Amino acid sequence: MTEVLRTENVRKAYGDKVVLRDIDLVVEPHDVVCLIGSSGSGKSTLLRCLDLLEDIDDGAIFFEGQEISDPRVDARAVRRRMGIVFQAYNLFPHLTVLDNLTLAPRKAHGVDRATAEAKSMELLTAFGLADKAREHPDRLSGGQQQRVAMARAMATDPALLLLDEITAALDPELTGEVLEIIRRLAGEGTTMVLATHEMTFARDVATTVCFLHDGAILEQGPPAQIFGDPREERTRQFLRRVLQP
Amino acid sequence: MPPTEADWTPSARQVERDALRRRLRLRSGTIATVATVVVIGLLVLGVTSSPGWPRVKEFFFSWEDAKAAFPDVLKGFGKNVLLFLIAEPLILLLGAAVAVVRSTTSAAMFPVRLLAVFYTDLFRGVPTILVVVLAGFGIPALQLQGVTTDTFWLGCGALVLSYGAYVAEVFRSGIDSIHPSQVASADALGLSHGQAMRYVVLPQATRRVVPPLLNDFVSLQKDTALLSSIFVFDALFTAQDYASYNFNYTPIVVVAALFVALTIPLARFTDWLGRRMMRRERAGAR
């Protein structure tokens, strides 16, 4: 198996409300999979299931060839190989930017401080944040905070990066600088699954676009096909609504 | 059409996974039980095998003395409960009032603010038992007209003053924890400082400080026993009385058991309330 991630018939329900149904998804190395769809279609829940933040109710998730939906799997070991960035940044306010980045490498991966800091500074420099390393997160703009959150997720060299609508809380100007980072990571071959409302961006960077509706992947394919010639009527409706100027 | 549960049956994989989850749950349940039995067993063994245990058993765990003292001790315990029930609402009012006074900003209120600061500093600093003794013996000695000399009420007042200071600080920390943007929003809507406090800040602050408040009340329940030092015939005083006549301390263990029986439900209630609030606050930020 060469794929990074594969899901088979994943199902998730909260009581009677089914939020994910029959999710089949394959992520190959260097793929950028964009999940699109209206709010409540299950994009975030899917990402949370992939990161084992939620137990699935049926189906299976394979990550690097191992079934991680097995209850015996150590979720921490899996998460050490995955990075996730949330809409609300979730930076640790009591730590400096640099300490936010080095915490996981040092404590969860046993990297020594000097190595962790060198690597983190490299990331911060690449993300244009080198001068903010000693600041606390609340001194930074939203876009800068979200870039720090991305750098923090990348600091442990994850095999897969999950991004949950990370530009949804930012104004258009700041959105641009965060998207630029994602574009850059995609160019470097980082494997990513991201939920996004930025259709133009998805068209540009995605290798695969999945349209979710009512908890199911209604249609998936290369961006040119999904945006240019969608098979499903619901996809067409959705795109008409969100692409209207 | 929204999907429902009806058109779905778990796959073989899911059935197996559910069985595995059950087995894992059962296993951790078993481990917890065995560990508990072993730890408690060792503790009991350690105490009962000590050289002095037979004498301790005779003086502290005598069933006959427990039975003989129980009716009087229970009557005394009624006083503890009554004290608690009277003092608690008064403490809440006093604490909230002092906290609100401390968070006022107008210049005219300065002397009252100063008084509030002085009050909390003083009564948080003096050990509660000293306040009780000073009130119980000192106030009657003043021979004031129209002031009660009943140590029950004087002691009750002492507890209210002492705990009021702690509760005021709890309330104040709650008020301080409400984000300034809430006050700014209230100001922007044209509410006065007092109205903002009354309708916006206090309701949120109170909800937030309920767990530490209940913690203080568990502590207050126990501290009602301090009134035994000014000869209020509460549970502890009754038990000590029995102990000095019969040279047996079992009633004191009985009092301890009664206090535990009273505080444990309140402590569990506190836990439950805290968990529920945490769930509510986090519901939006999953």
UniProtKB/TrEMBL annotation, chain A:
Membrane topology value: Peripheral membrane protein
Lineage: Bacteria, Bacillati, Actinomycetota, Actinomycetes, Propionibacteriales
Keyword Transport appears in the UniProt entry: yes
Family note: Belongs to the ABC transporter superfamily.
Gene Ontology, cellular component aspect: plasma membrane
SMART domains: AAA (SM00382)
Superkingdom field: Bacteria
Entry protein name: Amino acid ABC transporter ATP-binding protein
Matches recorded under InterPro entries: AAA+_ATPase, ABC_ATPase_HisP-typ, ABC_transporter-like_ATP-bd, ABC_transporter-like_CS, MetN_ABC_transporter-like, P-loop_NTPase
Organism field: Nocardioides islandensis
Intracellular or extracellular location(s): Cell membrane
PANTHER family assigned to the protein according to its UniProt record, in alphabetical order: AMINO ACID IMPORT ATP-BINDING PROTEIN, GLUTAMATE_ASPARTATE IMPORT ATP-BINDING PROTEIN GLTL
Pfam families, A to Z: ABC_tran
Domain ABC transporter: start-end pairs: 5-239
Sorted UniProt keywords: Amino-acid transport, ATP-binding, Cell membrane, Membrane, Nucleotide-binding, Transport
MF terms in GO: ABC-type amino acid transporter activity; ATP binding; ATP hydrolysis activity
From TrEMBL, chain B:
Alphabetical list of Gene3D superfamilies matching this protein: MetI-like (1.10.3720.10)
Its membrane topology: Multi-pass membrane protein
Occurrences of domain ABC transmembrane type-1 (ranges): 77-270
Location in or out of the cell: Cell membrane
CDD domains hit by this protein: TM_PBP2
Family affiliation: Belongs to the binding-protein-dependent transport system permease family. HisMQ subfamily.
PANTHER family the UniProt entry points to: GLUTAMINE TRANSPORT SYSTEM PERMEASE PROTEIN GLNP, MEMBRANE COMPONENT OF AMINO ACID ABC TRANSPORTER
Protein name, entry field: Amino acid ABC transporter permease
